[in-house]
């Protein structure tokens, strides 16, 4: 008899995954290559593993690797390995346990209504409860990732349309998440009702792009359109971009650590420059907690703007005393 409790608590349990990166494009030539570039800009959000799923009009192809984006998706044959004009990608960072390929995203399922690939950043707080219920009902899991729970919920939904199945699955999960999914006809993005995890909508040569941060848009030469709102589901197809609001409006509660540590300083999160926020935090710290010292030395890299703000507000010299290899 399999002890599901022991399985969930295995060392490679991926239930606490706060700082991953997601990316998606629809209708873009050589979508996998563009996605690889976007993931490279989101490498800071996850350096343990990465993956890309593409669709060429007839079939899905998924490629997942341990390691970083540059060493996994830099080959000249990338667009041959992952053909198509639609793709999503993911960089993985697990805060608990080891890294195993079975937990790497995007995850793919071939449902009766068609294939779907999914990648998400966040933490589903009712993951264990849902998993226990699904296993008790006969579900067979191939990983310990909470992302697979979403796929099982999709598969078991009684809704007819894929987008309705997707919303039905989201209605059952709790926690903070930013999620992208690719079907044979649509690219879907969703943000949790509290807006805990970031997700932005961009445009590349008239084609929509979804990404965890604006720095990924900058990397591929895309323009920023807007933040995906908390509780919003964005449905992208050949007919355009549709915005759905299937959940009750809640007060936005974005994660403070996106500004403190997670996000890249050249990104804009929820309309605020990460660099400016960190620098102003340093300036406020100097006002509230002045230090009797000779020099301000940052801890790279996320601490640099805050240290600069502290130095400027306190009139102390700013010097680099710690160098990253």
TrEMBL record:
Entry's Gene Ontology molecular function annotations: glycosyltransferase activity
Organism, scientific name: Caulobacter vibrioides (Caulobacter crescentus)
Domain Glutamine amidotransferase type-2 stretches: 20-239
InterPro entries attached to this UniProt entry: GATase_2_dom, Ntn_hydrolases_N, PRTase-like, PurF_N
Protein name (record): Amidophosphoribosyltransferase
Keyword terms, alphabetized: Glutamine amidotransferase, Glycosyltransferase, Transferase
Lineage: superkingdom: Bacteria
SUPFAM superfamilies per record: N-terminal nucleophile aminohydrolases (Ntn hydrolases) (SSF56235), PRTase-like (SSF53271)
Coiled coil location: none
Pfam families: GATase_7 (PF13537)
């Amino acid at each position: 008899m399999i002890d599901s409790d022991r399985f969930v608590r295995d060392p490679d349990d991926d239930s606490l995954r706060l700082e991953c990166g997601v990316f998606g494009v629809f209708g873009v030539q050589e979508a996998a290559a563009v996605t690889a570039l976007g993931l490279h800009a989101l490498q800071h959000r996850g350096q343990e593993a990465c993956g890309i799923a593409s669709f060429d009009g007839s079939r899905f192809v998924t490629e997942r690797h341990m390691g970083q984006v540059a060493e996994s998706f830099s080959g000249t044959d990338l667009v041959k390995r992952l053909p198509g004009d639609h793709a999503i990608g993911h960089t993985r960072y697990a805060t608990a346990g080891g890294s195993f390929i079975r937990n790497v995203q995007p995850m793919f399922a071939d449902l009766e209504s068609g294939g779907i690939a999914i990648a998400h950043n966040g933490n589903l707080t009712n993951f264990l409860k849902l998993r226990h219920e699904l296993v008790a009902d006969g579900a067979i899991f191939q990983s310990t990732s909470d992302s697979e729970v979403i796929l099982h919920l999709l598969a078991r939904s009684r809704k007819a349309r894929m987008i309705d199945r997707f919303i039905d699955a989201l209605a059952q999960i709790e926690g903070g998440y930013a999620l992208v999914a690719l079907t044979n006809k649509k690219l879907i993005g969703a943000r949790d009702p509290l807006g805990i995890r970031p997700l932005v909508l961009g445009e590349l040569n008239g084609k929509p792009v979804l990404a965890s941060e604006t720095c990924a848009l900058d990397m591929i030469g895309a323009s920023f359109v807007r933040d995906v709102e908390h509780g919003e589901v964005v449905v992208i197809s050949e007919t355009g971009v549709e915005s759905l609001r299937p959940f009750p409006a809640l007060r936005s509660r974005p994660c403070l650590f996106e500004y403190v540590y997670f996000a890249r300083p050249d990104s804009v999160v929820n309309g605020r420059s990460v660099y400016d926020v960190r620098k102003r935090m340093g300036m406020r710290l100097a006002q509230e907690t002045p230090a009797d010292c000779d020099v301000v030395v940052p801890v790279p890299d996320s601490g640099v703007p805050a240290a600069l703000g502290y130095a400027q507000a306190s009139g102390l010299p700013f010097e680099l005393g710690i160098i990253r290899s």
